[in-house]
Amino acid sequence: MRKLLALPVLSADAVSSVAYGPEAMLAVLVLAGTAGLAYSLPVAGAIVFLMFAVGLSYRQTIRAYPHGGGSYIVASDNLGRTPGLVAAAGLMTDYILTVAVSIASGIAAITSALPSPAPATVPLGVGAILLLLAGNLRGVRQAGTLFAAPTYAFVAAMFALIGFGLADAADRGFEPGPAAVPAVTETVGLLLIMRAFSSGATAMTGIEAISNAVPAFKPVEWRNARTTLTWMVGLLIAMFAGIVVLIHLAQVVPSAQETALSQLARLSFGTGWGYVFVQAATAAVLLLAANTAYNDFPRVLSLLARDGYAPRVFLRLGDRLAHSNGILLLSLAAALVFVAFDGLTGALIPLYAVGVFLAFTLSQAGMVVHWWRLRDRHWRKSLFFNATGGLLSAVVFITAGISKFTSGAWVAIVAVALFLVVTTRIRRHYEAAREALRLHPHLIELPAHSPEGPSPSPERRLPRVVGGRTATAAGNGEDEELPEEIQHLSVVALASLDLAAMRTLAYAASLQQPVLALHISLTEEEARRFRDYWTLWGDHLPLEIVVSPYRAVVAPLVHCIEGLHRQHPGLTLTVILPEIVTSRRSHQFLHSRTASRLRRALRPLPKIVITTVPFHLQPGRPLPSVTSE
Fold first, then answer.
1. What is the C-alpha to C-alpha distance for residues 109 and 288, in angstroms, rounded to an integer?
2. Which H or E element spans position 572?
3. How is it placed in the membrane, per its record (predicted)?
């Protein structure tokens, strides 16, 4: 992407947080009345410094990870497996709450201008999530130019609002306007200031998006990404500081009926087109910010699945080249959170800061370890920036966890703990399954030929083809009435060469019918590796390898089987697949459900049979001793 396109697309989450970050800070300070609101500028100044420091930190991350350095990757590479999982948990929580908070804030922008739909906040929010779900399942995320417009419109609206507000304040000598006297429910203290600081710091959400997407930039990728990040942080600081100053000068008090931005827009533009533009741009960019999570959440989930910490079903791409299962999970989780908290932005904010700054902290700590190990040119400067960003992020994380624990932060902490438990148990199961399925050289003899002599050539094992049809074909219909009239071809679909695959191949060969092995590889490298394994096994059967770079498995299988059916219409094709059967029902969803999907896809075609050969995984089961005689 060009920088002018990448800036709005990748910074939508960060810049849109201006719509709720300043108000979240003020919503805490106002509990102490006028005395609490007096601290708005100092607290905002601390948040601005935090934005600057973390922005500099992520510039170093982009330089160190030019192929994309999200918190999960950085923490895993430099701190180890468990910190990487904790960072992933923080990211996943962040993305779920990004959808919920952005939708809640966007609806608040709409109901501030049009109060009548306010009672239907929850149905409207769920409807918006369903709209995002449908759009992303159809691949709408790729429409970068379309998504750039709302971000630029919001930036223009904010600078217009700040400009008009400052001009109006200049006419009265920058004296704050008359202030309403809010009710006092708490006293000013360190805990209140800490809560306000952590709430306002949620304006930094999405700041790591550019470091995740470095390969998406035009060359030189890392340099263009750093430039774009600098512009994004600059815009974020300018808008955040400008809105806080305007709120201070106008003496705006947070209200449950109208957002602070809406109040400022009314003061500057009345209820005319200027006000409508500000509210429409705000709602649009918040909807776009929610949509950015639909890109990052499934990507992190697919990385976890690749490493064995999440079900492998999340590796699969849909027909529109989107991680459909990850998109569905994100939509379900965000909708549940949104409904549970009644679609209220203020109620969701305490959960937000914990996940965001947990991921920030571990990412920057990982970068400190990275520079300490590498010690290349300018490593001391980079280490200092990352250490500063990590320390400040840790302060915000601890502050949010302590000060907002009873307000909802405990939910995010419990979610992170549950995430660790579930992912480690999934990894443990996959490791046990891999050990049970692994081919052991001392247990399996790999023959070079059968005892009767050399194995027959692949051509002799398949039916002869004459004029595009099998010589023994009975016809195209399913009208065979005698066993000898049925001509078979067994197609064994293999994901890997393990004990389950060997059992399936043995079963297919025992039918005394021609057998074709079929393997779907995700990369050329994987295809070469499988071919090497197949040669080591003895290359006893004909093998067809299909490379599917989009991680699709069922569609290429269906395409190959349909091709065989068209080429040999007289054959009855029996598709045989290994099936992993677990001792616990809860573990079964961690393994492929390819057979049922193939049945649905191939049901319209005649003379095709789908069958599975079960391989039972049992705790403590001894490895079978298999030899070829």
1. 14
2. strand 571-582
3. Multi-pass membrane protein
